[in-house]
Structure formats: structure tokens, C-alpha cells
């Protein structure tokens, strides 16, 4: 009986500690999932969004790859000539840890590329894609 209590307590501690260690990226994904009523996000859909050309935004930025490039592990270049750090978390581990910054850039970039704000589903898919890179 005592061993069962120790094992049960240990499992409870592991579950609670996992919940408390969820990071900002996981929190953002959870918020997007709740807003989109999503059952999950897809890195494949995120990659498609990243590489797809759109006609609704600015003519000089028809896709994410215009500024960020096709390889998310490499640097990008803004129309102003400014270098953009790689999008891939494996290369830039501090990316997507400040929710206000993430939302700021989603709003700006989605409006410029898509001609509208991204949906929570699109944000979750795209963020899943770059997190896995």
C-alpha cells in the first residue's frame, strides 16, 4: 500500500511539473488551438502557408519566403535590406518566446503577405512548422 502511494504521488508530481514547465510556445499553441477549435496543428500545412504565394497582400511580398527564404534555418532579408534572423527554433532558440512579439509580427507579416490577419489555425500550423525546423 505504501509503495502504491509513493508511485501515485510520483506520477502526480510529474504531471504537475510538466504542466508548470510548459513554455511560451506551447502556451501560444494552446491559445491558437482554443481560438480555432483545433484538434491539432500541422507542420505540413504550416510549410505550405510559408511557401505559398498570395495575391491579397503587398505585391512585393507575395509569400513568406520573399523575405524569410525557403530555408527557415538561414537568414532572411527584409525589403529594406535588413538581415532577418533565421525562423527555425533550432537555429534561433529564443524565437517565439515573447507572445507580444509573436502577435506583432503575425499581424504585420500576415497583413503584408496575405492581405489580412492570419487565422488562429494558420498561426498554429505555421508556428508548428518553424518549431520543428
Binned strand content: under 5%
Tally the structural domains.
1
CATH architecture annotation name: Orthogonal Bundle
Report mean pLDDT, rounded to a whole number.
86
Order of helices and strands: HHHHEEHH
Helical/strand content category: mainly alpha
Portion of residues in helices? 40-55%
- Major β-sheet strand ordering: 1-2
Overall shape: it is globular
CATH topology: Cytochrome Bc1 Complex, Chain D, domain 2
User: What radius of gyration results from the CA coordinates?
Assistant: 18 Å
Number of helices: 6
**Model regions low in confidence, pLDDT < 50 over at least 5 residues:** 2-20
- Tell me the number of strands: 2
> How can the largest sheet be summarized?
2 strands, antiparallel
- The CATH class assignment is Mainly Alpha
CATH superfamily: Cytochrome c-like domain
Task: Give a nutshell description of this structure.
The protein is mostly helical and 133 residues long. It is built from six helices and two strands. The chain has a two-stranded antiparallel ribbon with strand order 1-2.
Secondary structure elements and pairings:
Layout: H1 2-20, H2 24-36, H3 43-51, H4 65-68, E1 76-77, E2 83-84, H5 99-114, H6 120-131
Helix pairs in contact: 2-6, 3-6
Amino acid at each position: 500500500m505504501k509503495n502504491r502511494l509513493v508511485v501515485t504521488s510520483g506520477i502526480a508530481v510529474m504531471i504537475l511539473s510538466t504542466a508548470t514547465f510548459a513554455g511560451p510556445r506551447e502556451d501560444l499553441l494552446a491559445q491558437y488551438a482554443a481560438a480555432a477549435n483545433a484538434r491539432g496543428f500541422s507542420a505540413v500545412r504550416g510549410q505550405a502557408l510559408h511557401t505559398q504565394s498570395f495575391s491579397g497582400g503587398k505585391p512585393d511580398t507575395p509569400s513568406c519566403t520573399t523575405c524569410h527564404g525557403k530555408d527557415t534555418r538561414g537568414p532572411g532579408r527584409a525589403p529594406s535590406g535588413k538581415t532577418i534572423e533565421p525562423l527555425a527554433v533550432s537555429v534561433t532558440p529564443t524565437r517565439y518566446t515573447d507572445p507580444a512579439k509573436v502577435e506583432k509580427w503575425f499581424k504585420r507579416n500576415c497583413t503584408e503577405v496575405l492581405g489580412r490577419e492570419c487565422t488562429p489555425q494558420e498561426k498554429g500550423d505555421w508556428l508548428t512548422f518553424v518549431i520543428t525546423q
